[in-house]
Design goal:
about 260 residues; mainly alpha; 12 helices; cell membrane; antibiotic resistance; transmembrane helix
């Protein structure tokens, strides 16, 4: 078999292994889903009226306007929270010795990482679909999005998930245990809280606006919002793609260097 065929075969085996783990322990994925779902329900039903009054300067906005505004941000926050599982599972494999066992076997070295990454991306997409269903149930509608917009939105979710997953895998490889990996990956949940997921950047205090604007979540959220709602995307589209490409390359190089490092 060629090296490419071996890589595909071994990566498929590792992917099946990770998907089996996710199926056997669904509570781990469900726990990561609770945060975005609870925030969605909290901000819509508890703070919805007050938050919608701030959209457009309070000119006739209602709760449905805020539902349309917040759902795209929550969807990408779901990606961030789901990829924490990749960091935790990678750290567990390292600390439990299974990766050391894989090193002694005649398998493609990169297949272990690829299995974790592809499995996490698939879980992220499924999690986004579930949270999106909750958004639809509480009133979110995407009436201005056509087939191309939906395909572009799906592509953005996959690219963003791929980028964050490689970063999360690097965090897992650099952590001594699963608990430390979960803690180190917490910025993937915290960053959306200071993005434009919940309120426009111009309504934030002046000192926090640069943090909200110059981070990966904000352009990705604005791009997804524009695709689903038909609003202006502007420069956010290429910024989101650039962030995804940069984080993917950085996370891959970081993860690969840690994985190839000789165990102590």
């Amino acid at each position: 078999m060629s090296s490419l065929s071996l890589a595909v075969r071994d990566s498929s085996t590792m992917l099946r292994r990770n998907l089996l783990h996710a199926r056997r322990y669904p509570s781990a994925t469900l726990n990561l889903l609770l945060t975005p779902i609870m925030l969605l329900l909290l901000f819509v039903y508890v703070f919805g009226d007050a938050m919608s009054a701030g959209l457009g300067g309070g000119r006739g906005a209602d709760r449905s306007d805020y539902v349309a505004y917040i759902v795209p941000g929550i969807l990408l926050m779901t990606v961030g929270s789901t990829t924490i599982g990749a960091a935790v599972h990678m750290a567990m494999d390292m600390s439990e010795g299974i990766v050391a066992r894989f090193r002694t076997m005649s398998i493609h070295r990169g297949s272990v990482l690829i299995g974790h990454v592809v499995g996490s991306v698939l879980q992220s997409v499924m999690s986004v679909v579930l949270v999106g269903a909750v958004g639809v149930a509480i009133g979110f509608r995407s009436v201005d999005a056509g087939v191309l917009e939906w395909l572009a939105a799906l592509g953005l979710v996959v690219l963003f998930s791929l980028a964050l997953t490689w970063i999360a895998v690097g965090m897992g490889l650099s952590s001594p245990n699963a608990e430390a990996a979960g803690n180190s990956a917490m910025p993937l949940i915290l960053l959306p809280l200071i993005s434009t997921a919940f309120i426009p950047a111009e309504t934030m205090p002046g000192w926090i606006q640069p943090i909200a604007e110059y981070q990966p979540f904000t352009p990705a959220i604005e791009t997804l919002r524009g695709l689903l709602l038909g609003s202006e995307i502007g420069h956010n589209g290429w910024l989101a793609v650039t962030w995804c490409a940069a984080l993917t390359v950085l996370g891959y190089l970081w993860s690969r260097s840690l994985f190839d490092r000789d165990p102590k």
